Amino acid sequence: MNKRCGGKDMRLIDLVNQSGRHLVFFIGSFPGAAMKGVTLKEVYFSASLQAETACYLAERFQIDFIRPVTDLVVEAEAMGLKARYPDNGAPVLVEHPITGPEALANLNLPEPGRDGRLPINLEAIRLIKQRTDKPVIGSLTGPFTLAGALCDPAGVAMKTITDPEFLHALLAFCTRALKRYGEALLAAGADILWISEPLGSLLSPAQFWQFSGRYIQEIFAAFPAMDILHICGDTSYMIKEMLATGAQGLSLDSRVSLPVLATQMPEDVVLIGNIDPVGVMLEGSPQQVVKATANLLTAMLPFNNFIVSTGCTLPFEVPAANISAFVETARNFPRLSPSQARLLLSLRRALLEGDSEGVTTLTKKGLQLEVDAITILEGGLIQGINRAGELYQQQKVFIPELLLISQAMYAGLEVIRPVLVQKRHGTRGEIVLGTVQGDLHDIGKNLVGLMLTANDYEVIDLGKDVAPEQFVEAVRACRPQVVGLSALTTTTMKSMEKTVRALKQGGQGEQVKVIVGGAPITPEFARRIGADAYAPDAAAAVTEVANLIDKVKEHQDGQSTTGVF
Known about the structure:
By secondary structure, this protein is α/β, with parallel strands linked by helices. The chain is 52% helix and 10% strand. It contains 24 helices and 13 strands. It has helices spanning 12-18, 30-36, 40-44, 47-61, 74-78, 101-105, 118-131, 143-151, 153-162, 164-188, 205-221, 239-244, 258-262, 286-299, 320-332, 338-352, 356-368, 373-393, 399-422, 443-454, 468-478, 493-504, 523-528, 538-560; strands at 83-84, 92-93, 137-141, 192-196, 226-231, 249-252, 270-275, 306-310, 430-435, 458-461, 482-486, 513-517, 533-534. The strands form 3 sheets. A 6-stranded parallel sheet has the order 3-4-5-6-7-8. A 5-stranded parallel sheet has the order 10-9-11-12-13, with helices on both faces. It has a two-stranded antiparallel sheet with strand order 1-2. The longest helix is centred in the N-terminal third of the chain and has 25 residues, at 164-188. The radius of gyration is 27 Å and the shape is elongated.
């Protein structure tokens, strides 16, 4: 699907725009080896196993790109360096001998069809192309990272200052080798060239361009192919230099805020990422994977130049259920039309400017464009107010701006509230909401209430500055299944603790569950004060309330059967 198989001028953005849904894949084919019962060491030395594991993953999980197992030492090994191969880990070089001009002069450019494991990787690409029409990714190590493999990572970092002349000579050699290997990958059938430059994150923006970026630019410019640049770590500070390489796609690590960077991105450059491969994909449950993926997709709704992926390589042991949850969530998540996406972005901007009139107008226009009210709420208003909170913490906006932003938020809520209420289908349960005594802030609480209403819950809103005894009385009068407590200031956390204690001492037991949230609240604090659940945001609150109501019903069902037999 590159210029050879998808049209003369095919670019990565064209591939994205031609799809009617979100494109999705994950970095790395390590899990394929685990699922096929072979070691990574075996895969590295077998073209047929590389093809089999990569195609197996693509077919089983229905990802949109195929990238066979690769590593960051294959080019250095082809130059004669020795490597160690763990059974189920990435290979590691055991020497870094190219430390000066004399050693560099004795180094020969590798021949892709002959040297090291390069022929194996090329044959794997050919075998994959025989089995699939999906775009196939051929991988190169970045020039600075390859130089680090030859000379030692710490060594090349220091040589940017102590010996830049030698380092440039080494980088020029690496670039010639990578261009030769890149040409062979494309000739074997690769549709996309992917450059991984992890050591680039060691450098300042100026150093990155001088010792990496301009060499990457040379490689990309040499080939008529779609191309992607991946750098590990938080690269927010050098996005300008990464863009200057001419990369058609930027694959960014999970430490980067994609929604923030997306506003700085040209519309014809594709952002790729960035679910945490370890904290979410390896260590999380399928439900947590779904939540993280949906949250990312919601945040990226205004940006169609986006491919859903992981932030870096999936570990060998990632559960298949987590991969399925990730891919299925991405494939089924709604994608906005270009006009709808532009409107949602304009809505976020108007909100951050505190423009109540603009927010009202854009919210109404969104409904006219058939953007679902819940999408306007979650993808527009909530994302905007969350960004305002981040800017406040970074001391980039202050209380006067926040007051205007809050006012604009309420203007948008007033437009969509009747629509959300009108779409309700019965009642899934009742919840009492309130901001605890001494706290006069209610934006977060109101967002939670609106989200619960939109999801068919009956919400009894007690307002703000609510005393513990008022919550207890509301429980006795309304008999809800859940009570939700909100606090925005640290000084009212003690009041939240008193309220939870009062509710627990009110004799309701398992009949009423308590959920807490707000800016200063943490899961640890929630557990310490005896709350039954914690929610960091409105979307999470809906999920947690559903879980709590299920527990209440299970308890009631258990009581109703007591003594039957």
